[in-house]
Amino acid sequence: MKSIKLLGTALILSLSVLFSSCSSDDNNSGASNLDTYISASVAGQNFRTYSLAGESTGIATRFGGEINISATSVEGTTFQNANTIVINLSGITATGTYQLNSTSDSYLAYVDGASQKIFSTDDCEGSTGTITVTLLNDQKIEGTFTFTGKESFECSEQKVVTSGMFKGTF
Length: 170
Known about the structure:
The chain is mainly beta. The chain has one helix spanning 2-18; strands spanning 37-42, 45-48, 51-52, 55-56, 59-63, 66-74, 82-90, 96-101, 107-112, 117-120, 128-136, 140-151, 158-169.
């Protein structure tokens, strides 16, 4: 069920980017001036939230005890190279460091646009992640993360995501 929600979130975000013009946020520090963003290193490659005219295509929502932040990074000129990171936090209501794995209610995921594979912490044994929430209030959430996500359907491949930073404005 988590994979279906994740795939739906990734699809909506990818479609919103698809109907936008090309631009990118080239802030190399990892941090961003965007209201909602995710940055990380995925298997050694930079992931930066795609923006259009300085506006983030990242999305942050909060509904009850569920927080979802997702962002797409577009490399090059084709959307075939659009990759997405999803942060889904369930029941996390305070700052702190949280360990995630296949039995957690919360998860971290990376969607590879070229292969259409999902690498997450929620479906396969041996997938792990750490998320540190440094700010959480009614308006926004900020923090850092790292995870090793396993391919959600066969659990045979993995992606390592490091140096993750995020900010979500609700």
